[in-house]
């Protein structure tokens, strides 16, 4: 490897150096060639890559900001839609809740009315049974039972 480096640099170790000045000139020329190569590589390769990378990052930042703004606006619109839907559901279920409570109250009233009427009917049946079981001689009891039956039929709950 050392030999390949010497041959590329045009250095022959078996030959004595001509002069220090000429050797320094060769080294300076070699340094200048390297610097020119680096500058040329930088201009033709690195600077365009840096410019393209910068342009890509600027576009990416712009797209991300726009996307963030769009997502925020979509989220706000979605939040408003959800709130309006929830309000409508609350209104519907609120009215249905009132309706169900009204129906429940009416059913309770109907149940109690029916229960009272059923008890009244059972009392009438019991009184008619007593009346039917009365003999011919129990006319006072029959009269009293007939009066109770009349009161029970004519009474309003």
Features:
rod-shaped, about 160 residues, mainly alpha, about 85% helix
Question: In short, what is this structure?
Answer:
InterPro entries: BfmA-like_N (IPR048012). This protein is mainly alpha-helical and 157 residues long.
Write the layout of secondary structure elements.
Elements: H1 2-8, H2 20-133, H3 139-154
Walk me through this protein's architecture.
The protein has one domain (17-154). With 157 residues, the protein is mainly α. Helices cover 87% and strands 0% of the residues.
> Structural class from helices and strands?
mainly alpha
The structural domain count equals 1
Largest β sheet strand count, sense and barrel closure: none
Helix content: over 70%
Number of strands: 0
Uncertain stretches: none
- How many helical elements? 3
Our measurement of the CA-to-CA distance between the termini, rounded to an integer number of angstroms, reads 122 Å
Shape field? rod-shaped
Radius of gyration: 56 Å
InterPro entries: BfmA-like_N
């Amino acid at each position: 490897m050392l030999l390949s480096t010497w041959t590329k640099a045009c250095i022959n170790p078996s030959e004595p150096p001509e002069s220090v000045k000429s050797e320094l000139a060769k080294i300076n020329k070699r340094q200048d060639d390297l610097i020119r190569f680096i500058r040329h590589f930088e201009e033709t390769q690195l600077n365009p890559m840096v410019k393209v990378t910068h342009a890509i990052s600027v576009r990416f930042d712009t797209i991300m900001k726009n996307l963030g703004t769009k997502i925020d606006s979509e989220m706000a619109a979605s939040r408003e839609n959800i709130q309006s839907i929830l309000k409508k559901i609350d209104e519907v279920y609120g009215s249905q809740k009132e309706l169900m409570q009204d129906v429940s109250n009416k059913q309770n009233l109907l149940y109690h009315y029916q229960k009272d009427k059923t008890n009244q009917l059972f009392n009438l049946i019991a009184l008619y049974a007593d009346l039917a079981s009365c003999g011919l001689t129990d006319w006072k009891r029959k009269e009293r039972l007939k009066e109770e039956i009349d009161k029970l039929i004519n009474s309003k709950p």
